[in-house]
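Lecture notes, continued. The same structure-token format from the folding unit now serves as the input rather than the output. Read the line below as a description of shape only.
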């Protein structure tokens, strides 16, 4: 008997970075499997790069792309934003509501539950993608968010974690899940396992321009490295965000303006061609696509041992460092001294593909959908 074809709606706030990448890949695979898919997300986030990405996937989305203003932090604006989102979801009548990130997770589960009150069967799934799990559980804000996470579990049919680290963090900060849950790693498309030639600059940072991702650590590490080597070290920084002016000022203050080039968001593989080595200096992560993409493209990387990154590289990988400018700069120096030897320390494409392929990711998530729709969960 052929599997049932589903109406799937993905709800998330910010159409940038890893969550947007995850939803796009998942959407393509789900459409290829015959499902009807739609997206609901924030209208005010993203730029020209994201608009091009939306245009690329728009023709395949039978349930459309719906964008409405969603504020980042909890506030009175959530009342109006929530009402608009609920009306969209009610009109789309999904079989599956999949919320991504803290805001998307609340909206999907709350509004899916409202539909159930009207005797409409819909599966409510939640992927944290880090989200509120980055908060310190000892702070008032952290206690508020983790209390909300525990409450929202009552309206959840299935939790999907992108790394074992994320699942362990959920257990530590929120509590052991009381609903079915799965670990499903992010996956890459087959064409992403083709190598990208070495570029002109020494190092590349690509990602959101915010302190959580560590651009300031990258810049400080470059300054330390130049001082240690007694020569210039070149870098490209690709991305956008509200803190970008501060990082530009930091580069100027440290006398690196002639060595660091800032560029707007672009496809990762285009950015990889601009430099020899990729640096991921994040202070916190869940399961970052950029690490997977870099390795699949044959790029040596230096990455902080946070979140699920050690699950990709291996806990004893020499590519792992602590999120400090000193350690990052020292590992950058090692990679410059013998780039060929350093590159051989990275995991190979065959190993990566077997664990982090998009087909594996989509298949496991589809299983979670059908499990959540089973009569026992309705």
């Amino acid at each position: 008997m052929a599997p049932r074809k589903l109406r799937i709606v993905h709800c998330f706030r910010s159409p940038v970075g890893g969550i947007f990448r995850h939803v796009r890949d998942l959407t393509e695979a789900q459409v290829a499997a015959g499902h009807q898919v739609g997206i609901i997300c924030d209208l005010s986030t993203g730029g020209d790069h994201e608009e091009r990405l939306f245009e690329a996937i728009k023709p395949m989305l039978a349930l459309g792309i719906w964008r409405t203003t969603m504020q980042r932090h909890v506030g009175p604006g959530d009342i109006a934003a929530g009402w608009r989102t609920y009306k969209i979801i009610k009109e789309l009548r999904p079989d599956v509501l999949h919320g991504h990130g803290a805001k998307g997770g609340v909206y999907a589960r709350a509004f899916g539950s409202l539909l159930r009150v009207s005797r409409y069967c819909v599966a409510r799934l939640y992927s944290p993608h880090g989200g509120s799990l980055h908060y310190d559980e000892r702070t008032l804000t952290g206690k508020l968010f983790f209390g909300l996470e525990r409450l929202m579990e009552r309206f959840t049919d299935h939790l999907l974690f992108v790394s074992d680290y994320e699942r362990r963090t959920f257990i530590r900060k929120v509590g052991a899940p009381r609903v079915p849950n799965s670990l499903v790693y992010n996956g890459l498309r087959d064409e992403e396992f083709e190598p990208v030639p070495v570029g002109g600059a020494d190092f590349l940072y690509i990602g959101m321009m915010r302190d959580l991702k560590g651009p300031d650590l990258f810049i400080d590490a470059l300054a330390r490295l130049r001082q240690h080597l007694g020569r210039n070290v070149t870098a490209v920084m690709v991305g956008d965000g509200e803190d970008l002016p501060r990082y530009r000022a930091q580069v100027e203050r440290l006398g690196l303006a002639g060595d660091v080039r800032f560029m707007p968001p672009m496809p990762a593989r285009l950015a990889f061609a601009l430099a020899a080595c990729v640096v991921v200096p994040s202070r916190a992560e869940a399961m970052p696509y950029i690490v997977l993409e870099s390795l699949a493209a044959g790029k040596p990387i230096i990455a902080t041992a946070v979140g699920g990154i050690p699950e990709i590289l291996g806990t004893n990988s020499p590519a792992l460092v602590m999120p400090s400018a000193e350690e990052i700069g020292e590992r950058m120096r090692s990679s410059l001294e013998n780039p060929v030897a350093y590159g051989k320390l990275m995991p190979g494409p065959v190993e990566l593909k077997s664990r982090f392929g998009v087909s594996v990711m989509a298949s496991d998530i589809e299983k979670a959908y059908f499990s959540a729709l089973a009569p026992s969960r309705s």
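Point for the exam: The chain has 15 helices and 13 strands.
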